[in-house]
Design brief:
Blueprint: H1 2-8, H2 11-17, H3 25-36, H4 38-55, H5 58-76, H6 81-103
């Protein structure tokens, strides 16, 4: 949990840049999942790939994981739900500006579909 917070709100970057900034919360949460419950990490990768391959947006893959993984955790690994839900909330908090861009059509696609 501390690693995700540290990547979202880096004190080092606050000292260097004069503002709290960060990133890579999704990757850090993935690393935490690898050691905490690797089965959920594999499921998260499958969810992300499905969303990204059908939409072309990395952000939709990330949001799919943020929404679905806590629900799946609640159903199949209830003891892990508080940890997974907290990770999802921490990651979601940093994605609000990108969600706004997606709604406004400003979020870039990862790839463009070829029309047949």
């Amino acid at each position: 949990m501390a690693a995700v917070l540290g990547h979202n709100y880096s004190v080092v970057l606050l000292l260097i840049k004069g503002r709290l900034s960060g990133g890579k919360a999704m990757a850090t949460a993935g690393g935490a999942l690898f050691f905490y419950r690797w089965q959920l990490l594999i499921l998260a990768l499958v969810i992300a790939l499905l969303f990204i391959s059908t939409s072309g947006y990395i952000l939709l893959g990330q949001l799919g994981v943020i929404v679905l993984l806590p629900l799946i955790s609640y159903l199949y690994f209830p003891a892990d739900f508080p940890f997974i839900a907290t990770l999802a909330i921490l990651v979601l908090l940093k994605h609000f500006p990108r969600i706004k861009n997606l709604i406004q059509g400003k979020e870039p696609k990862w790839f463009y579909k070829i029309n047949s």
